[in-house]
Design brief:
The chain is mainly β. Helices cover 6% and strands 33% of the residues. The strands form three sheets. It has a six-stranded antiparallel β-sheet, covered by helices on one side. The chain has a three-stranded antiparallel β-sheet with strand order 1-4-7, with no helix packed on it. Strands 2-3 form a two-stranded antiparallel ribbon. It comes from Marinobacter profundi.
């Protein structure tokens, strides 16, 4: 099985048009275009009944004490956790492409609706937790919201775009399901998977 993410080469930087946050020399970060990239896939195995698309960052600090704090840095050796940026499930087997901007086109304060989207069913991404303390932004964030790593992180962040061919029409997920729910529901149902990884940073020393 093969996956292609238009504009993103494996191991190369992700263009800013796909980012939630972009570098700003004065304020460290500004909101970005936040468009989902075009994702397409091919060579799904026989018996495929649906697809799931997941994008996640495994390099997110496990503690947020020093994140985006003036005069501090997030050390590279700090333990890291997964942060889910995009969850789409129950994509019909007849679909093999999600166009650019189809699931996200701009930062939407308080988030997009979960549940049925333009393609498939949207799960809830981790901006829901990350922005929970921000009165202007707090809400339920579903579907795609792109990279916005801490601007003071010593570590370059990696973003895995994955497509999974599944042997079921639906994973049976409803409500505000998250990335861990998707992974658990997929167990025993994955026929094939493919991945492309891009990188991103807001740290001027790493750019």
């Amino acid at each position: 099985m093969k996956i292609e993410v238009q504009g993103i080469e494996d191991g190369q930087p992700i263009p800013e048009k796909f980012a939630f946050g972009v570098y700003n020399a004065e304020s460290h970060m500004s909101f970005g275009p936040n468009r989902n990239p075009e994702v397409s896939w091919s060579d799904a195995p026989a018996g495929t009944r649906s697809f799931a698309v997941i994008m996640f960052d495994p390099d997110v600090p496990s503690r947020a004490d020093d994140v985006n704090q003036e005069g501090k840095t997030v050390p590279g050796d700090l333990p890291r956790v997964d942060f889910f940026h995009w969850l789409l499930v129950d994509i019909p087997a007849s679909v093999n492409r999600i166009p650019e901007g189809h699931d996200s086109d701009g930062v939407i304060p308080k988030g997009k609706d979960h549940g049925p989207g333009p393609t498939g069913v949207r799960g809830v991404n981790n901006y829901t937790q990350f922005l929970a303390g921000n009165a202007d932004m707090a809400g339920t964030y579903a579907g795609y919201d792109g990279p916005c790593p801490p601007w003071n992180d010593e570590l370059l962040h990696h973003y895995h775009f994955e497509v999974h061919a599944l042997d079921v029409d639906s994973l049976g997920l409803t409500g505000e399901f998250d990335g861990n729910d998707v992974r658990e529901a997929m167990k025993g149902h994955v026929l094939a998977s493919a991945r492309v990884t891009g990188t991103y940073t807001l740290n001027p020393d790493l750019r």
